[in-house]
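It would be a great kindness if you could assist me with a short task in structural biology. A protein sequence and the structure tokens that stand for its backbone fold form the material at issue. I should value your view on which stretches of the chain appear to form regular backbone elements. The record follows directly beneath this note.
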Amino acid sequence: MKYLSVLSYLVVPLCLAACSSEPQAPSLPFSTVSTVKEQALTTDKDAPTCKVSLNVACAKSGNAEIDRAINETVVQQLFDMQNLTVQQAADSFTNRYTREYLTNLAPLYAQDRSDESKRQWYEYHYAVTTHTQAGRDDIVVYIADVDYYEGGAHGITQQLVMNFDPDTGEQLTLKKVFVPGAETRLTELLLQRLMDMHDVNSVEALRAKDFLYSMDMFPSENFIMGTDELTFIYNIYEIAPYAAGRTEITLPYSDVKELMAK
């Protein structure tokens, strides 16, 4: 019994480590650049504000070409900018966003400020948080979560994914991961998986559940190249209404190996 007791202390931690499904750290190191700013709409003490908070992972491998390739893609995808460092892009985006908030909304608020029920419409925020993890064959998976409110009934959340070749820093898009002509079969697999997830056997039945109501199925460019499977991310409104939230469809590599370029 003593030997069994000692063995249990050894086996349980090892099993927990081996069975853990927590994402692993990527093969390339990253640091985080941050920008935070709050802009009041007027000089009033209780004026509505626009709050921007950006925490963006930045490649810091020490290889200038790889880091530049990754960071340029991040800047383009998250901020629609070019020829800037991640910190410069974050700062520039924050200053532009708060400036446009003040310029565009101050005249409107001047008309609505006496109506307290409308005040919430002017409480803007824009937040980005990012993290990286290891994917298949040491691929770097870069995930950005975006949360913003710009008036209206509710805010918007989005998840943006980029997969990077660790040897070159090149972004691995659908066209680079899959062979030409793979889109048709990939769409079929994703559609079948979505039907399985909701226990239906037709597109009409999916539409009765508000999926694909006004669009057709498609392979999303937002996909995670995990160690064992691909996860396709569909943000709100892409294949389902706001109430459905984000949809994730997972396909094991065994289902798509004949479609992959490598």
